[in-house]
Amino acid sequence: MERIQNYLGGEFKDSMTGDFMEVYEPAVGLVYGSMPRSTQDDVHFAVDQAVKASDSWAALAPDARSKWLIRIAEAIEHNADQLAKAESKDTGKPITLAKQLDIPRAAANFRFFATSILHSHTPAHHTNAGIFNYTNRHPVGVAGCISPWNLPLYLLTWKIAPALATGNCVVAKPSEITPMTAYLLSGICERINFPKGVINIIHGPGPTTGEAIVTHPDVSAISFTGGTQTGRRIASLAAPSFKKVSLEMGGKNPNIIFDDCNLEAAIDITIKSSFTNQGQICLCGSRVFVQKGIYKKFRTALVESARNLQPSDPSDPNTKMGALSSKPHLKKVLGYIELAKSEGGKILTGGNRVHLKERCKDGYFMQPTIVEGLDNRCRTNQEEIFGPVISLIPFSEEEEVVAMANDSGYGLSATIWTENLSRAHRVSKSLKCGVVWVNCWLVRDLRTPFGGMKQSGVGREGGEEALRFFTEAQNVCLKI
Ligand code: NDP
């Protein structure tokens, strides 16, 4: 059994009460470890450590902070195999995906913000003769970073790295469902002698440990990624004390496929945007709108490709589809299949749980699923499923598909497939979402603003946006 501990003030600790929670391996459906069930007292201790370390960390010159972050990036790269195995075991995702996406991106997050603070600048304004203004950016102090289970190390470090780079100390909470790589990151910090108290990683349930971070008076900013309901709760808890909040939440992303697209590429990438990480990426497309001229051809090819994509043991390097993250989540996703049927949807392929053989016989696997025949307004097409389930919807005209794509409470991302450049620009501009990919998907440049509109998000991450979020602007007006 693996034993995960909190990492507070540079030391490994159990929760003060000694209470633990079980950690499951989704591919086998069994407990493989335990983690602390941290309480408010543990969170208070964590925040105290961060407060104590704040002044000296903030006082470091950017190049000194940068060097520390680079050391973390290097250590992640050095331990990439161990981290990828742990991520795959903890989440059920294919080991190859963890090796190619999650762990390299975690290292890239540290490298990116380590170097961006060496090149960032603040404005100065010449006002009148003899008067000018300049802007300081101060760290907020202690930042609370709360992340979900789908891309555990990738998303946690996407928050921790800019917070540290800009001179803040951090209290970070990974999801209780996937705590392992955050724990391994704690080990990395200890091994490289990272300054004590600057990074504190605490484990426990969202409604207790998470809320204690959100409501702590010495935590000045909360960076959260997770579900919209949780985001709403965090916003309401943070509002009375006017904390800064960045909320990256759910989506119901449209893929818009026009009949002049490169069909082969559109099918290939739509399979990826639908089923990568078992459909558990906030950026996965879930409503696939296909223009009528190519609808039948697209559907036939998509269904055939989905049938060829069957789940198998995530620890096998050839596996392309693994297990869902937890038993309750599998149940939720299968519940949506029943809902889709009851709403009149036809299951073109998939729809069932899969029991693999031997060690994976009780794992949380399900088939990639394609549904057809549902109206855009029905619950299946409006609520976030967050699993390997997509809904095909035919359309005739550009205006019609834009209206349907925007007819959602969410506004995170979209993909557009067309060879018509004018249309690509026009449709991109008319979509009410924060991220648009044209003829591609999940291509990321860490300098770009990342986040959603409507119920998908408040604020943006990435590049300058993240550097601004974790700092407070102060203008100084100077008469010479
Ligand atoms: P949750 O909202 O359930 O949890 C996210 C994090 O918040 C977890 O660490 C969780 O802890 C914690 N948490 C839960 N309740 C509270 C609370 N009351 N106060 C403080 N923290 C709390 O999301 P999931 O983990 O289920 O992740 C899936 C969701 O994340 C999907 O909706 C997905 O769309 C969204 N997501 C959004 C992304 C984006 O960039 N927009 C990217 C990736 C995912 P614990 O798990 O221990 O309960």
- How many runs of DSSP E, i.e. beta strands? 25
Specify the biggest β-sheet: 7 strands, mixed
Estimated radius of gyration: 23 Å
CATH topology of the largest domain: Aldehyde Dehydrogenase, Chain A, domain 1
Tally of alpha and pi helices:
15
Helix content: 25-40%
Q: What distance separates the N and C termini?
A: 67 Å
Shape: globular
**Overall mean confidence score, pLDDT:** 98
Please supply descriptive tags for the structure shown above.
globular; seven-stranded mixed sheet; 480 residues; alpha/beta; Aldehyde Dehydrogenase, Chain A, domain 2; Aldehyde Dehydrogenase, Chain A, domain 1
Task: Please provide a brief summary of the model.
The protein has 480 residues and is an alpha/beta fold. The chain contains 15 helices and 25 strands. Strands 15-18-19-14-13-21-22 form a seven-stranded mixed beta sheet, sandwiched between helices. It has a six-stranded mixed beta sheet with strand order 10-9-8-11-12-24, sandwiched between helices. It has a three-stranded mixed beta sheet with strand order 1-5-4, covered by helices on one side.
Describe the structure in your own words.
This protein is of the alpha/beta class. The protein has two domains: 2-249 and 456-479, Aldehyde Dehydrogenase, Chain A, domain 1 (3-Layer(aba) Sandwich), CATH 3.40.605; 253-450, Aldehyde Dehydrogenase, Chain A, domain 2 (3-Layer(aba) Sandwich). 40% of the residues lie in helices and 24% in strands. The chain has 15 helices and 25 strands. The strands form seven sheets. Strands 15-18-19-14-13-21-22 form a seven-stranded mixed beta sheet, with helices on both faces. Helix 3 crosses helix 4 and helix 4 (95-116) runs parallel beside helix 5. The longest helix is centred in the N-terminal third of the chain and has 22 residues, at 95-116. The chain is globular and about 70 Å long. It binds NADPH dihydro-nicotinamide-adenine-dinucleotide phosphate (NDP). The site of NADPH dihydro-nicotinamide-adenine-dinucleotide phosphate has 32 residues, from helix 7 and helix 8.
